[in-house]
Design a protein that fits this description.
The chain is α+β, with helices and mostly antiparallel strands. The chain has one domain. Helix content is 36%, strand content 15%. It has a 5-stranded mixed beta sheet. The chain has a 4-stranded antiparallel beta sheet with strand order 1-6-5-7. Strand 10 and strand 11 form a beta hairpin. The protein is globular, with a radius of gyration of 19 Å.
Length: 275
């Protein structure tokens, strides 16, 4: 059964309109990860091979260089100093999660382009369409693949160093006008997508990583999202919700914080962790 929490202090007047995420969404990059049918066996094999050569692709894109002492994570979420016992531990967690983004960038670029990053033109090229006729660009495909690599890496990091529970790609239903947050099970999400009942997925959010301090899985210490700009010279940024979405005039980071509490931060291979 889905977990549910009512937060009475949430704003009561925010209008909830539109559809956030459907298979026919106006923003095609919200198509569910792992559902792109055009990835063939050859491509999958290249991706597996890329893990062995990713390190050799160091020139695929610029990567973040940052001293642990200048930890954005520690500055933004002071509670982590208590949870992880020291600023060095917080800095190490940040560095390792950023390294997951760098590894994903190198491995996937190596699989598709060799020892270089994709150009702006390549990023924008249409490579397929989804089931509703919406275009799928190479940037979307690359972003999907890089997320898969980065999140597997992050899972290993968190299992080793994070003292509390954590959620990876957990979907939530969030009703900001009523202050209600509830989880959507993996089974329900898969069933709705499979049956085409994607209208049931509106008013949902799906952050990459949610770190919890205790067993309240509807509260976050910090929420983290990986971003892989294509081309890599683009700035990583939160998705801005339009008027036809469930969260008009807001962005992912704000909605994550409003729904789950805690700070929301971005992780990208070129900029590291950013606010």
């Amino acid at each position: 059964m889905a977990a549910r929490r009512v937060v009475w202090w949430k704003p009561m007047l925010l209008m909830v309109v539109g559809v956030l995420l459907t298979a026919c969404a106006s923003s095609p990059h919200r198509a569910p990860r792992g559902e792109l049918r055009f990835v063939d066996t050859e491509t999958a094999g290249r991706l597996r091979h890329a893990a062995a050569v990713g390190r050799a692709a160091g020139a695929a894109a610029p990567v973040a260089t940052r001293a642990v002492a200048a930890s954005i994570l520690a500055e933004s979420v002071p509670a982590l100093l208590t949870l992880l016992k020291s600023d060095n531990a917080v800095g190490d967690l940040e560095e390792r999660l950023v390294e997951c983004a760098i590894r994903a960038e190198r491995q996937v670029n190596a699989a598709f382009f060799g020892n270089r990053a994709p150009t702006r033109q390549e990023c924008g090229e249409e490579v397929d369409v989804d089931g509703c006729g919406e275009r799928i660009t190479r940037a979307m495909l690359l972003g999907q693949r890089k997320h898969e690599v980065a999140l597997q890496c992050a899972r290993e990091v968190l299992a080793e160093v994070w003292p509390g529970p954590y959620s990876i790609e957990q979907r939530y239903r969030y009703y900001p006008n009523a202050g209600v947050l509830e989880t959507v099970s993996r089974e329900e999400e898969a069933r709705l997508i499979r049956e085409g009942c994607t209208k049931e997925l509106w008013r949902t959010i799906k952050p990459d990583l949610v770190l919890h301090s205790d067993h309240d899985l509807l509260r976050s210490v910090v929420t983290l999202d990986y971003k892989f700009p294509c081309p890599h010279t683009n700035e990583p940024r939160w998705k801005q919700y339009g008027e036809d979405s469930a969260y008009p005039d807001s962005n992912q980071g704000k909605v994550y914080s409003d729904a789950l509490g805690g700070r929301s931060l971005l992780i990208s291979p070129g900029r590291g962790m950013t606010r």
